Amino acid sequence: MSLTFSLAHLMGGIILLCAFLQLSQRRLAAMITLYQLEALILSVAALWQGYAQHEMALYLTGLITFALKAVLLPWGLREIVLRFNMVRAVETAMPMALSMILGLALIGVAVLVVLPTTMRSISLTREDLAIALSVVLLGLLLMIVRRNALAQIIGFLSMENGLVLAAVGMPGMPFVAEFSVALLVLLAFLVVGVFLLRIREHFDTLDLSGLEEIERRGR
Amino acid sequence: MLIITLTVLATALHIGLCFAGAPLLLGLVNKLRAWLLGRRGPPLTQPYWHLVKLLRKSTLVPDTATDLFTFWPLGAFLAVTVATMLIPGFATGLLTAPAADYITVIGLFALARTATMLGGLETGFGFGGAGAAREALFGLFAEGALLVLLLAFALLAHSTSLDGIAATFRTAHIGISVSLGFALAAMLTVALTETGRIPTDNPSGHLELAMVHEAMVLEYSGRLLALLDYAGMLRLVAWMNLIGTIFLPFGMARAADILSWPGGLALWVVKLLVMAAVLSVFEVSRAKMRVFRVPEFLGAALLLGMLASVFLFVAARIGA
């Protein structure tokens, strides 16, 4: 087993671990820190793949990931928490243990889906693909099991990290695609920031169960 | 003949060092913690004096306790003693190696826990019962996690003996595996719970609401308490040896080869020092968890152990 593969694999594992641990955290600060760690490892993974594949574009991806996701976005998220004076503990929609078991099941699904469909491709990238798909699914799950809007954004961002991880591991992925995804996420973040402000103005809280209440009354 | 003599010598050295050094290791952890908090801390030999003090005190037995009251500390102590003897420290291939099975070691720790719990229930006194109930709750998850990990280790090493696991993990072709990373995270979580360190139990705390281990041994005094405290110190050494053997098996000496001993001993001491340092930094930087959050913490360990196995199946299918 080559060093390239081992290290890429290890970093993928740490990213998956971070995504999984985000499910087990109740506090916004801990979730943001985990997201930051995840993005940091992702940027290192991109740089390492750039070195291994001799791709200039991957270095750029790594640097953009570092600047945007490991520095700028966590800072912005922390700023939102401070500015809005939010309650730091997040409401969960289901018991913590149940959501973690669901997370494990999703990882199992990802593994089962990726293995048969990629039987013919290069064997070394397959495990990475399974990890990336798991991170995406865990991000989705995180968006489902949290009531708080900010926690849902973190789930969305974490999901996007999974996409980048998949793109970085595949040789020959065009740089433009990754770049546009990164830009898209930043835009989405800005839009969501404004959106949060509006929710906050209307309900004095970021707990989205208030929205459900209105929906029910409207019918 | 020479090989047998050397093996016996190495085993004696291993047992002697573990038993004599256990209080020193605890003293070191306490000292490092104090330093990190900006205090001077107790001297390194403080745990020895603590044991000597307890040995000189009189031993009281509550009126409500049965005759078995004095038996439980002994039972807990013996179980931990055997586990410490079995888990290899600086060398593999010890005299105890054929019996040093991962499942046996889990069983011995469970036995020690059961004996301590029964000791806590012995007097029919509230705190003891509360402590025992909590310990049982933690044990349920901790042992589950350890058994799930057994699956991962057995799949990787094709063996459940600690020597076999160490021998397989020492060779390079396993490489850095994601499964092992998950397994390490799960193992550390369980180790913190088993040795009663900070996120789950405060070793130096006597706050009634949060006590777990302290609550069970509250009624013991004198020699019996010394036995229980010494068992706690041995447990710390045993867990550090277990983690060292499974996850850091590099540089372990072979018992039949005396020339490899000094290197193995030196590396063993370094590993223990590093683990003590990591433990104290972790303890200082974390707050103690609420008691009813601990099952969640251990549940995460259980799931991490399962993840380790899931990824092993992936690796097995790809043949990587």
TrEMBL record, chain A:
Entry's transmembrane regions: 6-23, 30-51, 57-77, 97-117, 129-146, 153-173, 179-197
Gene Ontology cellular component list: plasma membrane
Keywords: Cell membrane, Membrane, Transmembrane, Transmembrane helix
Subcellular location: Cell membrane
Keyword Transmembrane: yes
Membrane topology per record: Multi-pass membrane protein
UniProt keyword Kinase, yes or no: no
Protein name: Hydrogenase 4 membrane component (E)
Organism, scientific name: Acidocella aminolytica 101 = DSM 11237
Higher taxonomy: Bacteria, Pseudomonadati, Pseudomonadota, Alphaproteobacteria, Acetobacterales
From TrEMBL, chain B:
InterPro entries named among the record's database cross-references: ComplexI_Subunit1, NADH_UbQ_OxRdtase_su1/FPO
Entry GO MF terms: lyase activity
Keyword Membrane among record annotations: yes
UniProt GO cellular component terms: plasma membrane
Places the protein is found: Membrane
UniProt topology in membrane: Multi-pass membrane protein
Keyword Transmembrane: yes
Transmembrane segments: 71-95, 102-121, 136-157, 169-192, 233-253, 265-285, 297-316
The entry's keywords: Lyase, Membrane, Transmembrane, Transmembrane helix
Protein's name in the database: Formate hydrogenlyase subunit 4
